[in-house]
Amino acid sequence: MTTTQEAVTAAERCIAEFRRDPHPVYAHLRDAAPVCPMKPPHGNETYLITRYEDARAALSDPRLSKDMYGAMDAYRRIFGDSSVALDDNMLNSDAPKHTRLRRLVNSAFTPRRVEALRPRIEEVVQSLLDACPTREPFDLLPAFAFPLPITVICDLLGVPPEDRSRLQQLSTTVAQTGFGEEFKRAQQKAEEDLHAFFTDLIAAKRAHPGDDMLSALTAVRDNDGGLTENELVSTAFLLMFAGHKTTAYLIGNAVHHLLTHPVQLRAVRERPELIRAAVEELVRYDGSVESATFRYATEDVEYNGTRIPKGALVQIALSSANRDPRKFTAPDELDVMRPGNAQDAHLGFGHGSHYCLGAPLARMETQLAITRLFDRFPGMALADPGGGPRWLEVPFPAFRGLAELPVVLEPAG
Q: Does the keyword Oxidoreductase apply (predicted)?
């Protein structure tokens, strides 16, 4: 008879194997159960969508709501009460609220506005590379991949430099996924600290406004009533959190896969004009958002012959959709010259009204990070090429990223 501990150990082993490489599981589900009922630890009835066409349709289906208040019982079972105050934002809302909140920040992320940030992003990239050791192994994630986007988004928001490291630490705790009591207490404390931080920062912007996005949003709140006080705090958190975490993991994933695919790396280095298409392919191949944030069915809906009952949660596996052979030829191959590597081909940044607001910024940061890194250190290599990557291990998919990325910028010999 299997003991409880043996069962737990087996489950942990399965999770670890899935985190190392989820794609064989997704391939099986796309064929055998493209809309798969699940029993996750939080206990809410959930369906996982894995095929591209179903995923694309579900991402813009008005019957699949993003309004967390409409599924509050389910939300609390998953995230607890402390998350509610930080989640009163566009990510967790439907029209017209979503439209109103998104419109207030949309102008800061237009391609023209993002292009104006290029000199500052170049400056941050070069400064970070200046500080990296060249002849000894080090972890590229905390030294380069994370500081780049957190610096850029905090510049935009107007977060003081001395607070940025703490914000990154708190957001890392919030991003972790688990169900133990110790984990929940740590996450709740981090969420409370983040709420207090942004509440205090907004008060400071009121007293001494600057030329930054948070000052502008605070002025809109006070002068035009464009958003509530809690929406303002929650929006500030969302922009900070989403504005760095996903981009950092994307940069790490991209560097790892280029280092392990030397033919693809050589193509990008020899033909710099490929960098835009290369980033789109890297997002498709192994993007940093494995699964879209949850939706819930406001009525009975049917996908691929499977009925999803009213009230059930829906998870959309973006990583699986982006490897669907019904959409992409040889989807498990990384090909930076893949025909049709357009921005709207993959679902790595979502689709529909909730398409990632910061996608233009994430693209530019990733393009510049890859270009400058390999231009400056053409001999860069993995510190332990035979060791295999260590991926984040979480009970269910959210972020897809490396736990570490040890590299040597200028290997001996």
A: yes
